[in-house]
Amino acid sequence: MRAVVQRVSEARVTVDGERIADIGPGVLVLVCAMRGDTEAEAEQLARKLSRLRIFRDDEGRMNRSILDTGGEALVVSQFTLAADTRRGNRPGFSDAAPPEEGERLYLHFARRLAAEGVPVKTGRFGADMKVQLVNDGPVTIWLES
What DSSP character marks residue 31? Predict the structure, then answer.
């Protein structure tokens, strides 16, 4: 699985003009299940993210995890993270998991992250979503299982 993690002071997702999820301080996680991924990759990514030390401590260093800060996670499916841009100008997405498998692994990742102790909200798989965020730092991290 692949994920782009952005430390945020707030983030929200709307679908058809309706706000479906929002969080305060925490992380926005754009996640993509890749062809061949299993639940094990989703679980590994959830464990890694929950312990990733990207939040400031009292001395201003990135030394605290989302578990340490009590922050929230907004998890949004993003199949375009599988983009292959090596040839031509149009990205290919054949490395992304098929939609049914992608949705199952996306939801499994969100449940496992919640089981790690992180309050989780989600976007809507397959929907045309509008994602708004205030990136804190900015801090943006690429993770891959």
Answer: E
Sequence spans of domains, the chain: 2-144
Q: Is-above-0.85 flag for pTM? A: yes
pLDDT digits (tens, 9 = 90+) for 3-31: 999 999 999 999 999 999 999 999 999 99
Range 2-144 classified under CATH 3.30.470.30: no
- Whether 79 sits among the annotated catalytic residues: the reply is yes
C-alpha to C-alpha distance for 96 and 34, rounded to whole angstroms: 4
Catalytic residue of the set 6, 55, 78, 109: 78
Closest CA to 97 of 112, 111, 85, 81: 81
Question: What length is written for the chain?
Answer: 145
Known catalytic membership, residue 78: yes
Question: 120-142: per-residue pLDDT in tens?
Answer: 999 999 999 999 999 999 999 99
